[in-house]
């Protein structure tokens, strides 16, 4: 994996989802603002981005967009640009493409707003390693991945197999090194120059990159937390409590 590439100072945060599995909590607030150990989930995400040196982030909003806008207006550590999807929810791919248009056409960190990690042991931290390792000449996307046994709140699905050369393939039984996509990646916006207008799923580009040998991954060495259901909040708070203790 190449090292020493220029730091990445901008990010796109995917925060517009409906959070249907978190109902009834998300019937009164957007999923990224659901509190975990007294803090909205998205604040943990912003912590990680700030730690990595990100100075500007686009954030897409749809569900309870006014609440998101008010919360993000209080953020002072980095500049927030809102990608407004009030009129139409654009799915993971469409939302990403619209948000990237608010940023510079240069390598960008992309992160989901409803997951984060704690107790990281590797140095430099994962998002900095993503930035350093991303080589747009050889890669379409560099994904942060996590072993299943380091996940909390996950449904058990294995997403990819991580090869010894750093390339990713869709996981199927019999392949080595199964990993879960940790919801963070590095990408160059030019990858989406041919993207369709409107909603589409980002998996289209994952599969295209796999077919051309340009989907790569690195491992997260931390406790990875996703909160998809009300029951998962308590599990997440237990992990965070271990950190605090």
Compute the average pLDDT: 92
Tally of discrete structural domains: 1
- Beta-strand segment tally: 14
Uncertain stretches of 5 or more adjacent residues: none
The amount of helix comes to 10-25%
Number of DSSP helical runs: 6
CATH class: Alpha Beta
Q: What's the overall geometry? A: globular
> Any idea what the CATH superfamily is called?
Spore Coat Polysaccharide Biosynthesis Protein SpsA, Chain A
C-alpha Rg (nearest Å): 17 Å
Decide which structural class fits the backbone. alpha/beta
User: Which architecture per CATH?
Assistant: Alpha-Beta Complex
Provide the succession of SSEs: EEEHEHEHEEHEEEEEHEEH
The CATH topology: Spore Coat Polysaccharide Biosynthesis Protein SpsA, Chain A
The end-to-end span amounts to 35 Å
The percent range for strand residues is: 25-35%
Described by strand count, sense and barrel closure, the largest sheet is: 9 strands, mixed
């Amino acid at each position: 994996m190449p090292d020493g590439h220029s730091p990445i100072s901008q990010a796109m945060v995917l925060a517009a989802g409906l959070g249907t599995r978190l109902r009834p909590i998300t019937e009164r607030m957007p999923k990224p603002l659901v509190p975990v150990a007294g803090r909205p989930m998205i604040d943990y995400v912003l912590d990680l981005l700030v730690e990595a040196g990100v100075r500007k982030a686009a954030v897409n909003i749809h569900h309870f967009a006014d609440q998101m806008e008010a919360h993000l207006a209080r953020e002072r550590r980095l500049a927030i640009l809102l990608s407004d999807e009030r009129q139409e929810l654009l799915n993971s791919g469409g939302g990403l493409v619209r948000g990237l248009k608010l940023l510079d056409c240069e390598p960008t960190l992309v992160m989901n707003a409803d997951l984060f990690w704690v107790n990281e042991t590797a140095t430099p931290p994962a998002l900095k390693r993503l930035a350093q390792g991303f080589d747009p000449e050889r890669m379409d996307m560099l994904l942060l991945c996590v072993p299943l046994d380091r996940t909390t709140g996950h449904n058990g699905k294995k997403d990819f197999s991580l090869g010894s050369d750093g390339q990713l393939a869709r996981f199927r039984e019999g392949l080595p090194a199964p990993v879960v996509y940790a919801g963070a990646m590095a990408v160059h916006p030019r990858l989406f120059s041919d993207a369709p207008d409107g909603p589409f799923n980002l998996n289209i580009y994952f599969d295209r990159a796999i077919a051309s040998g340009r989907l790569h991954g690195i491992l997260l060495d931390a406790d990875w937390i996703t909160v998809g259901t009300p029951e998962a909040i308590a599990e997440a708070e237990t992990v965070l409590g271990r950190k605090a203790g």
